[in-house]
Write a structure and sequence with these properties.
The protein is α+β, with helices and mostly antiparallel strands and 346 residues long. The protein has 13 helices and 11 strands. The chain has 2 domains: 265 residues, Bira Bifunctional Protein, Domain 2 (BirA Bifunctional Protein, domain 2); 55 residues, no CATH class. Strand 9 and strand 10 form a beta hairpin. The mean pLDDT is 95. It binds histidyl-adenosine monophosphate. Histidyl-adenosine monophosphate binds next to strand 6, strand 10, strand 11 and helix 12.
Length: 346
């Protein structure tokens, strides 16, 4: 018997109800915040993800469903939604139009990861991307929107927050981090040794417990932020405080995608096991430019729908309907007509 591929699931019956219940809630919250639907293709040029998510990331380096198509184009199934939305934004010349553009989307993403509970090779995200608002209030909006969606679904969370600095403060920090990594290089794992030269800040979220015990003493980026990043981070915390959104500062939160600067955040749940990240996002002010657009600031987030489906508290739906039966064969036609009438009057 032919089975579905590892890490790729069918969604039917009750799962489908949960799925659509979540999409309906998330869509209505996103629309209240002024976001509009966008749909981008599942298949894109591989170069799009190499340039945006970054060649040193695990997603691009190890997890892409990449192949050469019949026209000899190097293509891949999208591992995430942001890059495609930015590509569309630039391709439709919205960067040249200026102003503010806010999009939401949902759909399948593909990552060739080792499948386990909460970690699939084809999974679904609900995401939003906001372009052209150069203000930390928009970062706060993203976090409040995620929180609103989770609350409406009855899902509790912990919010982890960090700032990744910008092109002013990051290079200097990177140097001090590299010096630190060199000082412990003999003790760290092979992946971290490699990351030291490809993308040093990624060592900070290494899953190896011995590496983590060493990085407790690593220099912290939030202590080296330039004044602009520091002011934004302070303001963001103040807005969240004023709106009753609790957070934890996690100086090791670096996110697995290379395009972020300044705000980075993750929502985690303590109720679903080791794959606990239910949503993640942040600011990515350089990505539009990087993909050949006019410089445009941007911020966004995405939520993992399968992980959320484990947590959603579904409302009790009362089942109402009719049962129409025929006592003998001659009445069947009448019954079909009656049933059809009832259905079309609903
Ligand atoms: P991400 O953190 O890679 O961010 O993914 C967002 C969410 O997708 C995760 O928090 C998790 O819930 C879910 N997810 C990721 N990988 C898997 C998997 N293998 N199986 C099941 N669920 C998974 C992004 O993708 C960014 N594009 C988010 C963003 C939007 N940043 C700015 N705008």
């Amino acid at each position: 018997m032919i089975q579905s591929l590892r890490g790729m699931n069918d969604i039917l019956s009750q799962d489908y109800e949960r799925f659509t219940y979540f999409i309906d809630i998330a869509t209505s919250v996103a629309q209240k915040y002024g976001f509009h639907y966008i749909e981008t293709p599942l298949l894109e040029e591989t170069a799009l993800f190499k340039r945006s998510v970054g060649e040193s990331s695990d997603i691009v380096g190890k997890e892409m469903y990449q192949f050469i198509d019949k026209g000899k184009n190097d293509v891949c199934l999208r591992p995430e939604g942001t890059a495609g939305v930015v590509r569309a934004f630039v391709q439709k010349k919205l960067d040249k139009a200026g102003g503010t553009h806010r999009f939401f989307y949902h759909g399948s993403m593909f990552r060739y990861e080792r499948p386990q509970k909460g970690r699939l090779r084809q999974f679904h995200q609900f995401g939003v991307e906001s372009f052209g608002v150069d203000s930390v209030y928009e970062d706060a909006n993203m976090i409040m929107m995620t929180s609103d969606i989770l609350k409406a679904c009855g899902i509790g969370y912990r919010l982890q927050l960090n700032s990744l600095g910008d092109s002013n403060c990051m290079p200097q920090y990177r140097q001090s981090l590299v010096s630190f990594i060199t000082s412990v290089e003999e003790e760290i794992c092979e992946d971290c040794v490699r990351r030291k030269s490809t993308n040093p800040i990624r060592v900070l979220d290494c899953k190896n417990t011995h590496c983590q015990s060493l990085y407790v003493n690593a220099p912290k980026l939030i202590n080296s932020l330039c004044s602009a990043c520091d002011e934004d981070f302070t303001k963001l915390k103040e807005i969240l405080d004023n709106n009753g959104i609790k957070y934890e500062i996690d100086t090791h939160l670096v996110r697995g995608l290379d395009y972020y600067s300044k705000t980075a955040f993750e929502f985690v749940s303590d109720d679903i096991g080791s794959q606990s990240a239910i949503a993640g996002g942040g600011r990515y002010d350089k990505l539009v430019e990087f993909l050949d657009g006019r410089p445009t600031t941007a911020v966004g987030f995405a939520m993992g729908i399968e992980r959320l489906m484990e947590l959603i508290v579904m409302p009790k739906i009362s089942q109402e309907g009719y049962y129409i039966g025929a006592l003998d064969d001659n009445a069947i036609d009448l019954v079909v007509q009656l049933a059809h009438k009832k259905k079309s009057h609903r």
